[in-house]
Design goal:
The protein has about 140 residues and is mainly beta. About 0% of the residues lie in helices and about 55% in strands. It has no helices and 8 strands.
Length: about 140
C-alpha cells in the first residue's frame, strides 16, 4: 500500500484564488425603505445611489468600502465592510458593514452574488430597520 501526499503551493492571498475577481468599484441605484421606527420612515421610499468599492481579496475574504447618497445629495455616507465568499457557492458572498461617517450610518449585512459581470446585493440593517436590493455594474476606470 502506497500513500501519496500532495502538497499544494499556497495561493497568493491577494488573488482571491478560485473566487470571482471583483476588486474595483461597482455602482448602481436603488429604492430604500425604512421601518416605522426609523426617523426616515416618513420620507417614504428614497431613490439612492451607491458605490461599492471592493478594495482587496485575501482568498475568500473581501475588504470593501460602501459609499451611498440619496439622489440629489452631494455628500456621501461612507461605511466600511468586511466579508467572505461562500465556500460551497463561490459566486455568493456576505459583507458586514459598520458606518464611519454621516448622520445616517448603520450596521448591516449585504448578501450578494456575482453573476454575468454584475453584482446583485440585498441589504438588511436590522438595528435601524432599513432594507433594499440593488444591481451593481463595474465602474469604467475612465470615469
Amino acid at each position: 500500500m502506497t500513500v501519496t501526499l500532495a502538497i499544494a503551493a499556497p495561493a497568493d492571498a491577494n488573488e482571491g484564488s478560485g473566487f470571482p475577481q471583483i476588486v474595483g468599484t461597482w455602482t448602481g441605484t436603488y429604492l430604500v425603505g425604512f421601518a416605522k421606527s426609523n426617523p426616515n420612515h416618513a420620507k417614504g421610499l428614497l431613490k439612492t445611489e451607491m458605490e461599492l468599492e471592493i478594495t482587496k481579496l485575501d482568498g475568500n475574504l473581501i475588504t470593501a468600502t460602501n459609499r451611498w447618497r440619496r439622489i440629489g445629495d452631494t455628500d456621501w455616507v461612507v461605511e466600511e465592510a468586511m466579508g467572505t465568499f461562500s465556500l460551497d457557492e463561490p459566486t455568493r458572498f456576505v459583507l458586514a458593514e459598520a458606518g464611519i461617517s454621516g448622520d445616517d450610518v448603520s450596521a448591516g449585512i449585504f448578501h450578494g452574488v456575482y453573476l454575468d459581470d454584475v453584482i446583485m446585493v440585498t441589504y438588511a440593517g436590522p438595528g435601524t430597520g432599513v432594507a433594499f436590493a440593488a444591481q451593481l455594474v463595474k465602474k469604467d476606470a475612465k470615469q
